[in-house]
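User: Before I run my own analysis I want an independent prediction to cross-check against. Here's the chain; please return only the structure tokens and, at the end, one sentence I can use as a sanity check.
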Amino acid sequence: PASSLINGNNAVLAIGSTAYAYDRSESIKNWKKGLNVIKQNDISITVITPDYMEESTKLLLQGVQSGIGETFQDSKGNAVKLTLKVELMSENEIKSAIAQNEYDIALVPFRATNSSAVSFLSSVIESGYGDYDKDRVSSYIEAAQSSGELGEIAKNLKNAENEIISSCTVCPVIYESSY
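Assistant: Structure tokens:
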């Protein structure tokens, strides 16, 4: 979160950007390539989320839908229909669905219990969500914790964050701060 700190310093300023550059034309090309691979003209994606995130999830999906459209064309000019649905579940049901790989997309909260960037990244690992190298992320976090220098801590936390994000299984979308 933007309010995270490293030894009292703003973590975002110390770490720098971990967002990937966005190339719209390349994204569209890859999207259409993917459509050719799955060879479906009617795509339905269900997003599972807790009931208290229903409204924000619906708003997010409306934005996605308006950007992509309900019907669009693949690279061969075939019409493809996209339907995005929301299914409400308890957090335990979501964890179970994720563990059993029975979901399309899960929109779940990560809760920062304080302003520490180390604590937040540790909570991502502890959640069990994502298919990234947890041992590697843990080693970056441990290296950050054992260092006293801001630059070294930031470098290790950025490496941990990049490891999580580059897996494409955990994608930060929104956050709230209430501590």
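Sanity check: The first helix runs from residue 11 to 15.
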